[in-house]
Please model this.
Amino acid sequence: MHHFDRIDGALHAEGVPLESLAEAVGTPAYVYSTATLTRHYGLLREAVDAHRDALGDALIAFAVKANSNLSVLATLARLGCGADTVSEGEIRRALAAGVPGDRIIFSGVGKTDAELAFAIDAGVRQINVESGAELDRLIAVASSRGKAPAIAIRVNPKIGAGGHAKITTGGATDKFGVPVEEAIDLYARASASPHLTPVGLACHIGSQITSLEPMEAAFRTLREVVLTLRANGHSVSRLDLGGGLGVPYHGQTDTPSIADYAAMCARVLEGLGVEAAFEPGRLLAANAGLLLSRVIQINQRASSAGEDGRRFLVLDAGMNDLMRPALYDAFHDLAPVRPREGERLAYDLVGPICESTDVFARDRMLPPLQAGDLVAFMSAGAYGAVLASEYNSRPLVPEVLVDGARWAVVRSRPSYDEMFEREPRADWL
Ligand code: LLP
Model:
């Protein structure tokens, strides 16, 4: 569900025509919808609150890695959303956007001492510890700050899931979290330290998950660990269930509903008396954004002996702007902003980058397109702009936030001078 609809044939972001945005800001550009972010947060909030008896006063902490734009974060912060962060930079962004420290979770497999110290001083809600080595360092850092921060141990349930092998995190060979036995041991070690306050467990098994079964199995494992810890005399009051719920990328119908997801979580946590936390990234942001791009030209290659001809739609957006197809063979629907009449044709969607992986899709059937036409990659609000780079010395894509009929550039496109200023010339050159 999103708020990018056609009005008189032309695609709009809420009340704003994409054609006028392209005119004002140029292309490529990311465009986000406030109404969609708000709706997605509201749907999850409502679904989770319907199970307050089992999930407690649950925190929804947006996974900042999915979209770290300050205005996007501020939009969610105003709704009461927290933040799941994985670096000092992300904690700083969440704080700057107005997320209070006690709604910030600090996750991540390799947090430095400096980052741990920063998180403790910022008063984050909890630090999710992912290894024994990290636990030891955290005890030392916390003791040096004279604090006893709340921590959760991230369990690796040996259940991986997700839309692609490269976005699975809960499998036995994945680097994230610790196996159950070790989690029990680390919890005991943390309890024995006066410098830590162990409050619970965390788990996140993958991303773009389209079946509730692996999640349910993982959460059942967490439940067992809670019971074991309690039998060992420990107190456990929180369970962080991670993110990972898949979203419909155009026409995909196999994604579980938010209500079913919340009901499943409640079923597993029933009677445990813990407070749940959720770390959705994609669920809140993916369909709240698109990447607006212009057709540079169409390169028509005639068929030759044994080879079909190809129709390359060369766009001004490249893999440096939207990495997901190159990284994970991800599908993004391409919507012509003002479709032309005529028979649909098969296009290979490519960017201008000098790499063979700079292909967004092959043989995509689209209405006829011409140089200068505007198109939009849909569902690009999560893991889009955050993964962008300046490869091939292309300026970072600007970001625009729309709210009804108003819009604002919430990250500007750097000028070439600004790009070069970041690279002071070595004084011997
Ligand atoms: N919590 C933790 C600890 C995570 O590692 C992640 C994502 C999330 C929450 C949010 O997951 P989500 O709800 O968005 O699925 N770049 C990839 C996705 C990588 C996800 C990494 N971790 C992509 O574009 O598909």
